[in-house]
Amino acid sequence: MDIFDNIEIPNFIDEIYIDIGLAADAPNTISWLSQSPNSFVFGFEPVEENCNRVIEKLKNLGLDNRFKLFRCAVDNVDENTIKDFYVTCNSEVVGDHGQSSLFKLREELKDSMWIKKTVPTLCINLKSFLSKIDWQRFKKIKILKTDTQGNDLNIIKSISNYFDKIEFINCESHTYNQYQRNDDNPHLIHEYLTNNGFTFLTSSVMNPDHIYKRENI
User: Fold this and answer.
1) What are the beta bridge partners of residue 169?
2) Which secondary structure element, helix H or strand E, spans residue 29, and what is its range?
3) Each residue of 125-145: pLDDT tens digit?
């Protein structure tokens, strides 16, 4: 069975948010759910420890009834695929897996960040999820947030057919060259989205967090 079959959204919900890469405390999800009682968040997080902590935190806050978590990674894949996912540790913060990624960390960072374990992880294409949304009921996704340690542009490119249904995109534009990849350039996301109908709202292209608004939504 497809993991996105039988998605149920309460009748009183009128806004949908997508949070890809929740980390350990899901600050965006908590903010959205707290600010709007009619919001619903779909979260995607591949790190098991982060998933467990997020679920516990949302339950403690009484917000878990408006949240659905998928334990998987998001990627620009043609079909559901199993890939190695690198769960990391950080010497500065105990239990921090914030640099976990589908990409390996650079070897020269090993004294401050390192790979704790390599986990075979389900990778899905976000468009397979978006195809399940009732677009008669919901005209748009309010905010799509991606924080995937180097894979944001791949994810964004995979859902270009749904750009007219996403009001805001909040994405990580670069990762300070922490990973073994050669395209860690904040201008790449900026050029792609501004060339495809989005307006840049962040103060600096070099900022690692970019926010864009879809024109005419």
Assistant:
1) 144, 212
2) helix 27-35
3) 999 999 999 999 999 999 999
